[in-house]
Design goal:
With about 475 residues, the protein is an alpha/beta fold. It has two domains: about 190 residues, Lyase, Ornithine Decarboxylase, Chain A, domain 1 (Beta Barrel); about 260 residues, Alanine racemase (TIM Barrel, Alpha-Beta Barrel), CATH 3.20.20. About 30% of the residues lie in helices and about 25% in strands. The protein contains 13 helices and 21 strands. Strands 4, 14, 15, 16, 17, 18, 19, 20 and 21 form a nine-stranded mixed sheet that branches. Strands 5-6-7-8-9-11-12-13 form an eight-stranded parallel β-barrel, surrounded by five helices. The longest helix has 21 residues. Bound molecules: pyridoxal-5'-phosphate. The site of pyridoxal-5'-phosphate has 16 residues, from helix 11.
């Protein structure tokens, strides 16, 4: 097709290069180790995926699709890696919002993690699991009085306060109960993490935290110290964003936090014993993502805080961090069945699966990128530029925007999307009255449903007619 033959309309060649699909892979069956869970292998005979010792075709037959699968050993190994890397003089809080269920809270407790919750519902799950309340942290910019009461009554180890209103509310609740509640102050350190705007949280113009630069953080500290009988101020907290790959942002945050600790010592004569640098460490969703080893990150963060404190003449505070996705994301995949395949000549092939934006909103919400693979067989076909889409009535219902799938991908094939263990089930919706998929933990070839699939009765049970 020559250019002059179609002077008016767009040429396919103009349309194609949009997006970050890169070149077709040499081997469409290859699984990149840094993206897929540790327990994933392609069976040499069938070409199908074995997930933590179980054949995904059998899992699909038994539990249906879509389904979230978690490689339990991989999840636990990552949790241990964080706990060991930070050592006995730091605490690792798992950010429960990335994905929390009773089983997950038990794994977290087993592996020595602390746990962050940010709503009454997440707190309820943690308490149902018997998670030690002293190892819980409670976050949020608008915790209700009922949520705060429940947290105080349960003995939550620390509440991260986020507004002047909340300080007064919490002081009143603690006074009423006759307890002294440990709290941290969430501050905005003015760091803009290099990430999508919706998940960058430490710049000033946003709802979370007290501004360090504007003086609100200092006011919050003064206010809390006035309630010293009800509130025990243990330290400062900062969370600079998510899906961050270098420690430069943490370095700036740590610098500003230690300046604030020094100012508190000057103004109030106290050294706060704790410092929380938040979460946000990135994971590999695609080949382009290159996360540093956890041990390296831990060493770097500890070194930064130690250096800043030494410079300010402060004792080293007990450090805490709050990884969510870095623990829960990589061990999880979503298994889908292909329903329809629609090749658009010269553009790409639309491959529709039996879920979509209701089980993974991140692609439409954040332009998130994912890696997908045909997992029920190996293929000898050439890679075809594809888009994996869901079944919702919405053209933005995209699961993987740019995917290279085998050109012979067909209805009935199983696809797996990698690194969906965080922020997929936890952000799932019932849009179009789809039923939320189950979460299945697999270990040594044995599968266990830890959250069952929703049923129409679940949906209609809420509908009072
Ligand atoms: C979301 C969040 C985290 C976890 O972020 P990840 O990107 O999952 O590591 C940690 N701390 C706070 C306060 C958060 O809001």
């Amino acid at each position: 097709m020559s250019r002059s033959a179609h002077p008016a309309g767009p040429r396919y060649a103009d349309v194609l290069p949009e997006g970050g699909h890169g070149a077709a892979p040499a081997d469409v069956n290859r699984l990149d180790r840094k993206i897929w869970p540790g327990g994933v292998v392609r069976d040499a005979g069938s070409g199908a995926l074995t997930f933590a010792g179980a054949d995904v075709r059998e899992l699909a037959r038994e539990y249906g699709t879509p389904a979230y699968l978690i490689d339990e050993d991989d999840w636990r190994r990552r949790a241990r890696e964080w706990v060991e890397a930070f050592g006995a003089d730091a605490d690792v809080f798992y950010a429960g919002k990335s994905f929390l269920s009773v089983a997950i809270a038990k794994w977290a407790a087993d592996e020595g993690l602390h746990l962050d919750v940010c709503s009454g519902g997440e707190l309820a799950v943690a308490l149902r699991a018997g998670f030690p309340a002293s190892r819980l942290g409670f976050h949020g910019n608008n915790k209700s009085v009922a949520e705060l009461e429940r947290a105080v009554d349960a003995g939550v180890g620390r509440i991260i306060v986020d507004s002047h209103d909340e300080i007064e509310r919490l002081a009143a609740i603690a006074a009423d109960r006759g307890v002294r509640q440990p709290v941290m102050v969430r501050v905005t350190a003015g760091v803009e993490a290099h990430t999508h705007e919706f998940i960058a949280t430490a710049h000033e113009d946003q709802k979370f935290g007290f501004s360090l630069a504007g003086g609100a953080a200092a006011d919050a500290v003064t206010r809390i110290l006035k309630h010293a009988e009800q509130l025990e101020l243990t330290g400062l907290h900062s969370h600079i964003g998510s899906q961050i790959f270098d420690t430069a942002g943490f370095e700036v945050a740590a610098h500003r936090l230690t300046e604030a600790l020094a100012a508190i010592r000057r103004d109030h004569g106290i050294e706060l014993p704790e410092l929380d640098l938040g979460g946000g460490l990135g994971i590999a969703y695609t080949e382009a993502d290159d996360p540093a080893p956890v041990a390296e990150i831990a060493a770097r963060l500890k070194e930064i805080v130690a250096r800043e404190c030494d410079a300010a003449g402060l004792a080293h505070p007990r450090l805490s961090v709050e990884p969510g996705r870095a623990i829960a994301g990589p061990p999880g995949i979503t298994l889908y069945e292909v329903g329809t395949v629609k090749p658009l000549p010269g553009l790409r092939t639309y491959v529709s699966v039996d879920g979509g934006m209701s089980d993974n909103i991140r692609t439409s919400l954040y332009d998130a990128e994912y890696t997908v693979s045909l997992v029920s067989r190996a293929s000898r076909a050439q890679a075809a530029l594809s888009r994996v889409v869901g079944k919702h009535c919405e053209s933005g219902d995209i699961v993987v925007r740019d995917a290279w799938l085998p050109g012979d991908t067909a209805p009935g094939d199983l696809l797996a999307v990698a690194a969906t263990g965080a922020y997929c089930r936890s952000m799932a919706s019932n849009y179009n009255h789809l039923l939320k998929p189950p979460v299945i933990a697999v270990k040594d070839g044995t599968a266990r449903v830890i959250v069952r699939r929703e049923t129409e009765d679940d949906l209609l049970g809420l509908d009072l007619g």
